[in-house]
Design the sequence.
């Protein structure tokens, strides 16, 4: 809940590389362990705000600081034309609304004029559908510790009743809630294999640009999660498709910045997701800074004070 709120609200947000911002003093209930998948990170009205915020919160806590220091590399490139960027604007698993795509296509056209080296065919050597499945299971498993014994037993009964081929969001969540540790270890191994593929990808490309969500901001919906929907190209789509685009970075520890780059015809903000290599946080933010200065950035909404 950093990048998607930033995209919906027309501000900046940065999801740091997993583990570089300790949860000490942040976790609810005074928890000491860092949750799997989840991170904490800054939001702001400028990309400069993100740089300041990340510098303030990143680094080891008092215990870990006795043994190591965090040194995030400074961006190696300072001008847009120096970047080599992959572009992914749509995917069949979470189709992107044409209004959102139009805003992102306009950004890509601007980058092309600035002589940024762009490639809309480059992809990491992983199955993005499988990556999404691994993310959803790891994410749901990470929050399963809050179940009571009674809830666990109910979920176990539900999991045993699922059809073997049921890969719906509900089915994955139920299975993750009662996941055996041996199955979590297999998922974790898949995650780390994918991390290697992403690392290889970022040897050739500085960044990956993609949508932050399939649609702009949605009306509040307080129904149970499975009952909710989003509108994409005039059609109702499953609400959980909002998770696909953020999962590209979440599943494999990658940093990603959400930067506002335009509005829909109805005036709703649209952000671009800037994904970088692990520990490439400052490069993601630097690219957002360049877009802010040379393209567009935060635009105050009507009646903003």
Sequence:
């Amino acid at each position: 809940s950093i990048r998607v709120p930033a995209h919906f609200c027309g501000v900046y947000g940065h999801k740091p590389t997993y583990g570089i911002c300790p949860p000490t003093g942040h976790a609810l209930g005074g928890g000491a362990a860092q949750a799997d998948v989840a991170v904490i990170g800054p939001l702001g009205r400028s990309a400069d705000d993100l740089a300041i915020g990340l510098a303030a919160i990143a680094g080891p806590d008092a215990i870990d600081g006795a043994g190591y220091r965090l040194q995030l590399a400074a961006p190696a490139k300072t001008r847009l034309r120096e970047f080599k960027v992959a572009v992914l604007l749509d995917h069949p698993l979470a189709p992107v609304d044409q209004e959102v795509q139009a805003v992102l296509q306009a950004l890509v056209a601007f980058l092309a004029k600035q002589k940024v080296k762009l490639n809309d065919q480059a992809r990491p050597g992983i199955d993005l559908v499988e990556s999404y499945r691994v993310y959803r299971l790891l994410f749901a498993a990470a929050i399963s510790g809050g179940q009571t014994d009674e809830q666990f037993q109910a979920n176990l009964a539900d999991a045993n009743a699922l059809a073997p081929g049921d890969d719906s969001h509900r089915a994955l969540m139920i299975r993750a809630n009662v996941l055996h540790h041996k199955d979590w270890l297999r998922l974790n191994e898949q995650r780390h294999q994918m991390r290697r593929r992403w690392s290889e990808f970022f040897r050739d490309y500085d960044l990956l640009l993609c949508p932050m969500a399939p649609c702009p901001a949605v009306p509040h919906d307080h129904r149970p999660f499975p009952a909710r929907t989003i509108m994409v190209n005039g059609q109702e789509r499953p609400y959980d498709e909002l998770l696909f685009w953020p999962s590209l970075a979440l599943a494999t520890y990658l940093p990603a910045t959400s930067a506002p780059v335009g509005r829909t015809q109805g005036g709703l903000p649209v952000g671009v997701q800037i994904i970088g290599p692990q520990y490439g946080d400052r490069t993601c933010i630097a690219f957002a800074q360049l877009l802010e200065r040379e393209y567009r950035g935060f635009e105050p909404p009507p009646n903003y004070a």
Residues 125 and 197 are 6 Å apart (CA to CA). The two ends are 24 Å apart (CA to CA). Strands lie at 12-15, 43-44, 84-87, 117-119, 207-211, 229-232, 235-238, 256-263, 269-275. The chain has a mean pLDDT of 94.
